[in-house]
Amino acid sequence: MTIMSDDQGWILQTAHTAYALAINEAGYLVQRYWGARLPHQDDYPPPPEADGWASFNGPGQLLPEEYPAYAGPKYVEPCLKVTFADGVRDTVLQFERAEVSEDTLELHFHDVHYPLHLTLHYRLHTTDDLIERSVSLTNAGATPITLERVLSAQWHPPQRGKYRLSHLAGRWLDEFRLHRDWLPHGVTRLESRRLTTSHHHNPWFALDDGRANEDDGEVWFGTLAWSGNWVLLAEETDFGATRVSLGINDWDFAWLLEPGETFTTPSAYAGWTDGGFGAASRTLHDYVRAHLPHGDQLHAILYNSWEATLFDVSEAGQAQLAEVAASLGVELFVVDDGWFKSRLWDNAGLGDWTPDPVKFPHGLTPLIEGVKALGMEFGIWIEPEMVNPDSDLYRAHPDWVINFPTRARTTARSQLILNLARTDVQDYLITQFDALLRDHDIRFVKWDMNRNISEPGWPAAPREPRELWVRYVQGVYRVWGTLRARHPHVIWQSCSGGGGRADLAILRHADQIWVSDNTEATARLRIQEGFSQCFPAQVMEAWVTDAGRGQVPLEFRFHVSMSGVLGLGGNLLQWSDDERATAARWIAYYKQIRAIVQLGDQYRLLSAHDGQFSAMQYMDKERNHGVVFAYRVWLPDPTILPPIRLRGLIPDAHYEIQGIDGERSGLAWMRDGLRLPLANLESAVHTIRRLD
Ligand code: GLA
Known about the structure:
The model has no long low-confidence stretch (mean pLDDT about 95). The longest helix is centred in the last third of the chain and has 23 residues, at about 575-600. Strand 7 (about 105-110) and strand 8 (about 115-125) form a beta hairpin. The protein is about 20% helix and about 30% strand. It is α+β, with helices and mostly antiparallel strands. Alpha-D-galactopyranose binds near residues 381, 495, 498, 514 and 517.
């Protein structure tokens, strides 16, 4: 049994962890335990009670409530806040019943006075050691209820003292920067107000008591599966308790729950490990891979023309690039922006998704056939959610964009955002892209989104206009999900000016993510490592481009991209014979190691966040084959580089490292390590092979 009921409540057990909760004597649903799985059922503590009372501090301040609603004298961050039709803004939840199955628990509550029903959903991912939580609210009455905050979960690490919060922050061209800070007293708010997940913060978190490192120590970690506005509230209360609440952002949010309707939140996921930050990441990697649309597939090595041509694409120019790409061993040729009607620059054409008749006088098919004749598959770039004011679509439907009628429509990159909360807009996009995919042999689609929101209005909204924030995202999922279902062979990439839309929900639709528009290899090291905190290398598309050409050796640039899903994005027509030979060699090598990189366990050996000498390792699940990458960016000479201590080997098995003298035990490689005398801007890649 993975979920057990005892007279104290419920114990949720995964392979290595346990999470216990109960209704305490005062009637609050509280968390009892979260950490290592314990041997006996009666090992788990009883539910905490709020001992003591002061006029300034009631139970709401003292208890680790699973899902606190705003009610009574409660001043900590609640998960739920609603306004009833009579203006009452206080929700008193009463436990009704539990439904338990092998791996799900549903706890049903209702308000003591109003016909509002709430269900907390728990799902155990037993082998992945993760707990998934979501919430649904049903209005069983006759008058509407306004939802103002409905978070997905509140998570409570044990109350043992202070915690550090690890999270990812950044901006366009500099995404996924790891921050690891002690939580201050009070509330730390991380969020997106940008309509999408955003480059600026990512809903991933990890908590530790300051003693965890990559390999050891207790870490409580999690994330939210949502691609719209989200909020993470990390609160250290006045009583020294820490909790993290996660869900749809309540900023500017409102949802009118009409009689008979149900609102369901996205899922929040969390786990515990005593294997440090590395194990936390590998847990998420395994889970993400297991739930990808094509998780068991290795990704093709693609060529993308964006950085080579910008908008200057044409049948002849693309065909020339394709020929070189194929000769290097590339497997998938992707035409980026610029292929559709009137798209000479970024100020026109978005919305009109037919091939430009000047650039492609016979449509896309001749190019596609040419690419296929070269032995490659064909892929294409689209940006469905956007429209340029200079487009036929906008001229026909100026009312289809997000706007406030009395305000200027702020353009960014000369574009406006189509209101995907509207079903007519969704239907239009489905029809357009369904036809594109039906009429052409397209195997890969890069779905981009190149601006964030402004003037978040929904004129003529049939409902509460602030529902836009959620209905837009649901609209994106509907369009994407419908296209994916109709064209199941297509591999999708989620791009939003780089890594602006990377989350577990978009990875139900997309197979991979374009991590950053910054393709300069030395900068990319840190970006890719930050990304790896939550996401596996299998979803990390990484191109070798011309950024840094002349300064950073091509081999170094390849090694950086080979630690994810290798792609090429430089102007191959300008590459010398030497450069092409180098490219062909590393492409061939990558084909040998990509199963280990994309499907294996990832170890951050030496951090690019901390230093100029970094290393990353991947091992297959059987611990037979691995690959280690090392990069030295810039260190003054003389210098002593630290040994690279491998991980994940079987201690008493023997391993050889290609190109390095000596067979040694796994323990020796892990404890003593590997010494690589790299010069500045030099890198290395070595395969690891078990001998016995
Ligand atoms: C975004 C993407 C780029 C490229 C351009 C095209 O910036 O991140 O890779 O596709 O759009 O306009």
